[in-house]
Amino acid sequence: MNIADQTFPAVDSANEDRAQAIRDQLRDAIVDRRLAPGTKLSEGEVGTLFDVSRTVARAALQMLSFEGLVRTERNRGAFVANPSPEEARQVFASRRLIEPGIAIAAAGRMTPDHVAAFKAQLDEEGRFIAERGPNARRSEIKASGDFHLLLASVAGNTILQRFMEELVARSSLVIALYGRSGVSSCGHSEHMNILEALENGDSERASALMLHHIDHIEADLDLRVRSGPALRQALEF
Amino acid sequence: MNIADQTFPAVDSANEDRAQAIRDQLRDAIVDRRLAPGTKLSEGEVGTLFDVSRTVARAALQMLSFEGLVRTERNRGAFVANPSPEEARQVFASRRLIEPGIAIAAAGRMTPDHVAAFKAQLDEEGRFIAERGPNARRSEIKASGDFHLLLASVAGNTILQRFMEELVARSSLVIALYGRSGVSSCGHSEHMNILEALENGDSERASALMLHHIDHIEADLDLRVRSGPALRQALEF
DNA sequence: CCGGAAAAGATTGCATACGATTTTTGCGAC
DNA sequence: GTCGCAAAAATCGTATGCAATCTTTTCCGG
Fold it and tell me: What is the CA radius of gyration of chain B?
């Protein structure tokens, strides 16, 4: 064993899959609404933008399509997903089914470290809500999602964690599309209440609060079909 | 409008993505245990086997890796997943969380057509159990999984349906790896009881039965680490 | 001026090529 | 015999090229 055997983590992460890095950046852009739903993501464009070949760009787009953030049409290309109200309802139905259980699991595994991480997360969330800049709303949505992702990671089930990553990403899209007002400030206090229940190990309460929280988020959406799907689709492209 | 404008559906389905077709065949092979866990799936081999280029084979393998049926290591290749006992537990924990809810949703949407489909499914399941051939067990596992997939499709939530497809596929792998005996005959009667509850619209009972059913399946597994992971791994390759 | 067909251009699907990395093989030293 | 090391083979990661398909433009008859 020699000191030279060590590999620097920085090197490793730099050497990490480029497709994955591109996927992450694109996902952030989609969730943050910097890329509007319906936007075409051509392989060539993505490739030149990130300075890779179409092969790599294509792999990144394929990943996003698996996550439901991108819709690909054969021989036509990839587009930022434009979830329908029905799809939005399914996203939240899925979350209502999964997240209360995740809250219960997490309540039984909370450590002081976890509590500290949650407090830091909620602090940041509060800061974004206080801000009133142009992209404050974006940061708000993202931070709110991060709370749920943190919870999923505490729950300790890798599979459910991945499901939640997908659901949170799709939720962000849906909220950006159909969100009405600032439920967020309200959501922030709900997050704090959930954390309180988690800290006390009160899994039942955490679960119930989570269910209501999801209901509140969905209740803030306007999921009425705007003007008939045909017209909407016609105007979209 | 001309009769020549029609495109034949058969042509369309034949023209479907080849990568997807390869993925489906590989998935079947993995779930059926025709491909043992740990088996290397080299891009070149898969490509020549299905008579496509590595590009397409690679895409199929990438999809399977997203589903958790294949594990890929950079610069080393793709291998049939070899789920650890911990992973197996997580699969069933996820199912316990999701499937009772799916049963409730399905109970509220059952139509006579659905009932007929379930009956046909259970008939086939019974036939496979009666058979005592060499690969009867495989068919049994597969048919049992199909029951759960049918239920998920009735529930009417596309997102949850896809989650269930992944969970059922991984369960089949886990059962093949860690399964002890024939819980299956027992499982068959449980499936019939669940269907009965669904027919009666008794969602609570269907949900409870489903939860017990999953518990029974998991209880039939032997999830003790066999002889230390190091040795096991050493023997595996 | 307005369809509608045909050609030009753009984009995807797929195969192949080449450098990089890993694994296997061969061979000499101990 | 086996241990270590270097060369060879195999395999992966990625770029690029070509055919197929879709989109846009152009051009022409009405």
Answer: 20
Comparing CA positions, the residue from A110, A108, A82, A95 lying closest to residue A144 is A95
Nucleotide nearest to B54 (CA to C1'): C15
Q: Which of residues 184-213 of A touch B (CB under 8 A)?
A: none
Q: What are the residues facing A179 on neighbouring strands? A: A221
DSSP class per residue in A100-126:
HHHHHHHHTT--HHHHHHHHHHHHHHH
ipTM comes to 0.89
Q: Is the pLDDT of residue A9 over 80?
A: no
Beta bridge partners of B78: B41, B72
Interface list for B 77-116 with A (CB within 8 A): 87, 90-91, 93-94, 97-98, 101-102, 105
Contacts of A99 in chain B (CB under 8 A): none
State the burial class of residue A151 (Cβ atoms within 10 Å of its Cβ: 0-12, 13-18, 19+).
buried
3-state DSSP assignment of residue A71:
strand
Looking at the C1' of nucleotide D21, which residue has the nearest alpha carbon? A75
- As given in the structure block, the two tokens for residue B12 are 């369309």
By the 8 A CB rule, do B69 and B33 touch?
no
- Pick from A149, A123, A190: nearest CA to A27: A149
pLDDT-based confidence at B236, cuts 50/70/90? very low
Task: Answer whether any strand D atom is within 7 A of the Cβ of B78.
Answer: yes
B5 HSE (CA, 13 A, CB side):
2
pLDDT at A191 over 90: yes
- The whole-angstrom separation of Cα B77 and Cα B61 is 10
The phi and psi torsions of B71 (rounded to 5 degrees) equal: -115, 130
CA distance B174 to B223: 10
Minimal CA–CA distance to B145: which of B3, B9, B38, B31? B31
How high is the pLDDT of residue A88? 97
| A159 contacts chain B (CB < 8 A) | yes
Q: Considering only CB atoms, which chain B residues are within 8 Å of A157?
A: 90, 93-94
Partners of A221 in the β-ladder: A179
Residue A236, Cβ density class (10 Å: 0-12 exposed, 13-18 middle, ≥19 buried): exposed
User: What's the pLDDT tens digit per position in B37-48?
Assistant: 999 999 999 999
Query: Which of A29-33, A180-184, A196-200, B94-98 has the least mean pLDDT?
Result: A180-184
For residue B34, the cross-strand partners are none
Residue ranges and CATH numbers for the domains of chain A are: 3-80 (1.10.10.10), 85-219 (1.20.120.530)
**CA proximity to B175, closest of B214, B217, B229:** B217
